[in-house]
Amino acid sequence: MTKKPAHGAGDDAGQGPASSLLHLLDLKVALTVLAICAFLLWRTFLFDAVPASLAQNVQPQTFPQLILFVIIVLALLLPFEHLQKRKQGIDLDSDRREHPKPIAFVTGIALLILVGIMPILGTLPGLLLIAAGLPLLWGERRWKLLVPYALLFPTLLYLLFSFGLQVNFLPGLVGNWFG
Fold first, then answer.
1. Is residue 85 domain-shared with residue 128, that is, in the same domain?
2. What is the domain count for the chain?
3. Counting C-beta atoms within 10 Å of the first and last residue's C-beta, which end of the chain has fewer, N or C?
């Protein structure tokens, strides 16, 4: 009778032997992420071009493309992460044996709704709503921490990108009210 490895990618979850160079489950996730990124990257090439005289620092497709390239690099590293974690004595698959808690799906749905209404509300109100809503959804009730975080963090990010990096955001209804 053979012993299963104490840590690393075990055979239980169908990832392959612990000595495998690639973690098969992570490879599947990475390929899915890469396919989504390829589609989104293709969509960025369909954005309308802005004349150079009107473009403020970057063309509309540049920022999404930069983000997508970062995601692609991280996805390419994902199937190899188990090698480093195994050296540290961490079993990536131990937590994967449990199903995600319902709050994970509720969070995903809430974020989709908030991102969907952000063009209507505007970027800053949408960010404020996300920063306040998600901690409340997760059970945070320490108001002395929540209120400053929900007001300051999105506002500082907005100011950094708006004024520091000259990024134009959607004003939405709220932005239009204030001109």
1. no
2. 2
3. N
